[in-house]
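seq/struct pair 1
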Amino acid sequence: MNMNFNFNNPTNLIFGAGKLNDLGSELLAKKNSGKVGNKALLFISNGTSVKKYGTLERVEKQLKEAGVEYAVCASIHENPSKEVVMEAAAFAKENGCDFIVALGGGAVLDSSVAVAAMATNPGDLWDYVNGGTGKAQPLVNPALPIVTIATSSGTGSEINCWGVISNHQTNEKIGFGDPSIVPVLAIVDPELMKTVPPEYTAYQGFDALFHNTEVMISNGINILSETIALSAIESIAKYLPRAVWDGNDLEAREHVAYGSTIAGITMQLTNTTAQHSMEHAMSAYHHNLPHGAGLIMISKAFAEFFIEKHACDGQFIKMARAMGIPDADKPEDFITALMKLQKDCGVDDLKMSDYGFKPEESMTLAVNARETMGGLFLSNPCEMTNEECAGIFDQSYR
């Protein structure tokens, strides 16, 4: 076991049911200490849920109590695009916003990192993106401070400095971030997640699960990332089916939210693997594919690739035990646990063909995954060629 790690996260994380009620006092304290300003970009999606269920109204009330002015920007969609990020950044500039309050799920939280950077920096987002056609330039100016309020359990972006953005012109979906853009405040209130529909509860929950399972098989695993990743895997595996089938089950929501937020921490300690690069390629070409659904589709074949190579048998056994097979003694037990969890959550019949994929796309997706986010391939526990990567897509196709 690698005993070395480097963890630095200045985010004030407030976790628990009802904690949204602490937003006003926390913002006032942050404002008085100079960590946030006087006017916020209140950043939400183009959907209706935060309005329909009163969450937006509650946040607006908290902002007013803290003496914070705000301008609402409701433009972010699933698999957010570069163009929408640039529009939101321009909106922040036009309205004189000096920090961001990101209220929403993964798309909003991911996008807030890019918007915070582009609201203060010249040029185009792709000037600063590493990978693919990105120009990999350093940021010129500090980004706007970010406050995150998570309304779903999936990405862990509420507590880290990364977001994934799509460039539809080039068919690229690439992670963008900088250590300087870590949120100053994150509120994770599981009560806000009770209204997420079952289908998306499952997709988001599996995204959180795979963040942790990929960390577990990464060649950068260390004693701290393994310890907390296993804790998160256990919580998600035990409670996600309950959250899917009864959204009002607050105990289940709490545990899944815990697993998701912990993933945001594990990913700061240890990179995920090519499974995420591969799914980003999938949704770069098929924009209607939910990220979590894509991950589920390729998960079995992806794990089997490393099991067949005996690349990290012990890690798969540890995860199988955490997922409810206490006497697991072979890596294949992880596949058994994973398939059972997918069935229990009603997502075991997802088909790539239902989202427009064709078998002949496999190599295109494999090459795209490596060209755009090739760094995650370096975290795999053993080498994976483009041909082998395409083979995983082939095996996953139905």
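seq/struct pair 2
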Amino acid sequence: MYKINCMNPIAQVGLQNFSSEYEITADVEAAEGILVRSASMHEMELPKGLLAVARAGAGVNNIPLEKCAEHGVVVFNTPGANANGVKELVIAGMLLAARDVVGGIEWVKAAKEDADIAKSAEKAKKNFAGTEIRGKKLGVIGLGAIGVKVANAAVALDMEVYGYDPYLSVNAAWSLSRAVHHVTNVEDIYAQCDYITIHVPLLDSTRGMLNADAISKMKDGVILLNFARDLLANEADVLEALKSGKVARYVSDFPNPTTAGQKGCIVIPHLGASTEESEDNCAVMAVEEMMDYLENGNIRNSVNYPACDMGICTKAGRVAIFHRNIANMITKFTAEFGEKGINISDMTNKSRGEVAYTMLDVEEAPTEEIIRALEAIGGVFRVRIVKG
């Protein structure tokens, strides 16, 4: 029986996919798997029996990835599961920035007692007039699951779209409309685009990338959209640019004291993935990843360990080894099995940066003696019996 703890509410459509071999527990210390959305795990002590964490969403800045890796805890996310919900809100954000819909709605609320409100509106509406997005240039920085959908939707709205992503995947490239201009220098987007939307992960290299220097290279009156992470923008610099008129609007999905209520800022209360469909999709995907890993040792969409898939084990045993990505590890593993007279029928080894993951299918059930021997090898974080 696998015990799963939900640190946040997880959609029932996902949880119902767990088989009878799984139990949802409120005791996080007993958990072998944790499902999480926004709850921070940085200060918590990882339970000794914890094997996996699945984030029902894309961002994982609330999870201590390196700490988990060193404890042999695989962290999953659900890329693309909420992409359509975010895409739709980005398009809405562009429309809200292009035409002062929010200001107009607030005017109507304030004038609700005016018996001649329709007539008054005809005079007032010029204060909320804007522009159409058709024919405007949109720059999309980051062409992952969300960025590709935003780019393609903008093409369908007759915008001229430029995309930048130095790490563009093959799948993303196949999904991207041919009408999108792929640029190799982000400064081309800064120089040419009327709208700029950012869809990259928050890393040391991307933190504060929308700053005074970047803004200085943009067109006057540019509209910036940030539905990825607020810390991708130096928002103090953005506010200065709004005051000077260099930036016309800043649309963000991340309310904070810096931007809330500031002139020129349209701040949405983190609604990007908050749709029934997105939450359901994320829950289903997270549960599927968790089950495949716990039952088979397969890793899909991990953010701290490499992808690895050996299907369903048909042999007597399967062993998973978490270790540093250093030389001679495979030789040491196979030697231990050889000394115990256990034949290895299949094996795979994958690495990701400084960590690696090895799975071995064996023709005899692995013993505690061989597990202890493997654990004693320098550089090994954890050894797990998947089957046996």
